[in-house]
Amino acid sequence: MKKEQIYEFISKQKTAFLASVNEEGYPVLRAMLAPRKICGNEIYFSTNTSSKKVEQYRQNEKACVYFYKRGKIRYQGVAITGEMQVCTDQATKDEIWRTGDRLFYKKGVTDPDYCVLKFTGKHAEYYCDFKIETFEL
Amino acid sequence: MKKEQIYEFISKQKTAFLASVNEEGYPVLRAMLAPRKICGNEIYFSTNTSSKKVEQYRQNEKACVYFYKRGKIRYQGVAITGEMQVCTDQATKDEIWRTGDRLFYKKGVTDPDYCVLKFTGKHAEYYCDFKIETFEL
Q1: Total-model pTM
Q2: What count of CB pairs under 8 Å joins A to B?
């Protein structure tokens, strides 16, 4: 498995899982829609500015992004640790916006409750059939 | 949604997700097979004693257990934060063991590489259709 293959695997998954660390030091986990953009080590998600994860990442940028596929025979998973940045600048919001997003953000692309999570991966672990490979990104 | 319904939801899911906090303070995430036992606020998993998650939980017991279901219309997720205990005592190992486990642990139920993760939940969040309900357990 090469780094490029890991990103190819990620790009095919329909669900992503994000972990943050809350104010009491507990890890917190949630499922997300697939990333909007993957570019080098950067993975972009759209979300609500008012959400708890945004509050948590603003206080502690340490993050994990996880993707997995459970087939009939084989189980594959990729866990990437790195930093999560909350982007509220209009240029980034414009870039990540899709027309259908108006369903969630009534005020459109300038809605203050719409923001972008930009994850920069540093370290990846790929699991397959009980074996682990690690990568520095 | 009542607390009992949350546990009913959990008991139907085939995959669980666990988060720990590693030695550098990053959250780390992985998929797991469904719990072996759910009893009150306690959720039990079987795993390898030599795994990184065991090492991480021994250093920092703070944990999150997550379950989700992504249907055609509705998305539901439950995130429970609490403490994870690594159990290597034979009584707990005996209780959680299943015959098929010999496939993974060649030495059987006394295999030193087989252990039990016992999670005690404190706080739960249930997400459904963009709404969040919280529960103290």
Answers
A1: 0.94
A2: 89
